[in-house]
Every structure is written in C-alpha cells, then in structure tokens.
Amino acid sequence: MNNDGNSQTIFVYETDPNAELFAPTFSEVGFGNGDYVFSESTANGRIYEWISPQNGTRQGNYEPGAFIPLPNSRLLMTVGAEGVLSTFESVKSEISISSTDRNLYSNLDDDDNVSRAYFTTIQTSGRPSFINGYQWIGNVSMEYDERNFSFIDRYRPILFDRDWNYVASEDEQSADLILFMRAGIEKDPNNIVTVSTNRRKRASFIDGWQYGATANQEVADFRLTSNHFILQNDQLDQSTKWIRSKSDISYRRWKVAPGYVYEMDENEVQRGDSVVNTLMHFKAHEVYIANTDSSNSNFRVGYQ
Predict the structure, then answer these.
(1) Residue 205: its pLDDT value, please?
(2) pLDDT-above-90 percentage for the chain
(3) How far is CA 71 from CA 77, 101, 102, 285, in A?
C-alpha cells in the first residue's frame, strides 16, 4: 500500500538465497517519472529502493525495464552537375535529398522525414593576374540546408562549428544558409595572397560573419607565412568576437633557418556589456631555429 492508499506491486531487495527471486533491470527515466531511486552499490550490483508517490506525484527517477533501440532508417541521395564557363572558370551544383525516420514502428511525425539541401559554387583558377607569374584564384559558393535536412557522414571540417563558436545539439533542427567568397593571387604555395568572407544564418543560433586572410611570400632569402581570422556572431542573447592571427618569418639562406613567430587568439562571448565566457585569450612570441627544405635532417628548437 502506498501513501495515497493504493495497492502496488514493487520489487524489494532480498538476500535469502532460497527465495524465488526476480532480476529486473532498472533504467533512468528522469526525476518524477519513476518510483525507484538508486540506494547503494554492492559486489553483486546496484540496489534500487522503491519510494511511494506523494499526492499522486512520483518521487523517483528509475523504473524497472530497459530501453529498446528503435529501428530507424537514414537515406541520402545526391545529384550533381559540373560545367565549364570559360578557360579559367567552372561551375558546380548539387542537390541532396535526405530521408530520416527515427522510428519505423510509428507513423507519427513522418511528414517531415524528407528534406533537401542545395549547393552551388563558381570557381576560377589559372587566369593571369596583373603581377607577372601570378594567377587569379577564387570561388563563390552558396549552401542552403532545409530545417530537417540530415547528413549521414561528416563532410565538413571537424572545427567548422567551433569556428562559429557554436555547439550543435542533436535535437536542434534549423535551416542553414552559408554564403562564401574567396579571392586572391597565387604563384605557388609559398607566394600567395587571399582574402575571404563567410556569411552564415542559422535561425537564432548563428547570425554572423567570418573574415579570413592569408599572405605567404618569399623575398630573397626571407619567407613569410601568415594566416588571419575574424569572427563576429550574434547568438540568442549573446554575441561572440573572435580574432586569430599567426605570422611566421624566417631567414632561409643556410641549412638552418632562424625565425620568429607571433601568434594571438582572443575570443570573447558578451552578454550586454559583460564578458561571460572565452575559449582562448593569449598572445605569444617565439624565436626558433629549424631545418630548411634543402636539409637532410628534420628538427626545430624554439623558445616561447
């Protein structure tokens, strides 16, 4: 009999080896959804204790039973086309259709299983620039994912959402619009200058801009490599500002190259006028010596 005057069948821990016993499995169901609580852990396993409901309100967070994974289905179909616009420009487009059914036993909410995503990019490369030996490079792209579109395999860089200061939730579903543009000139990987901008809108979770720049140059025996990144993003009731910059200059006349690195990473999450969080916030200087491309050995010694 419980406290509300109703009879109830419950499981009670028993130590008598001759008793006819049950061996139930308990699963956590959230506070207020169960009639058992965890009591203690012994050599034979975990012990749970029944707690009587109070005024019809359940007082536990465990119930006898086990969750059975539901059969589900995930399908993804992609159709794409590529074309040449000129000697130096090309275009590529894709349409993807996803079908995600989280429970094949139920027809509930099946009307939103199918969703689409669209991607188009125009790219240029090889076109001679205004500087002798350099070529124009760049691309413009647009991606739009409908609210319920679901990927099967990861296709974006692992730090893609982190660079927007965004942690995706498994249950969060929102339409995603990404516009990207990059332009620059290139002679080879050690002589390249590019700038880029990225606009992303994902409901109220992401509403921001990214700006990037790369400048790698070799002049005589000096080599400069540098990468720069700026983020401005509004999220719900807060905003993020993020600046990353790294520059490395070295003198490569000999088999051993001395060099200097300056790096900064300043991330601030603000709510109103207050800074409430930060992922990184530092400035660093390093002097080093390292092998050059012509050296038979591979080493680097630095002081930061």
Answers:
(1) 87
(2) 48
(3) 20, 9, 7, 54
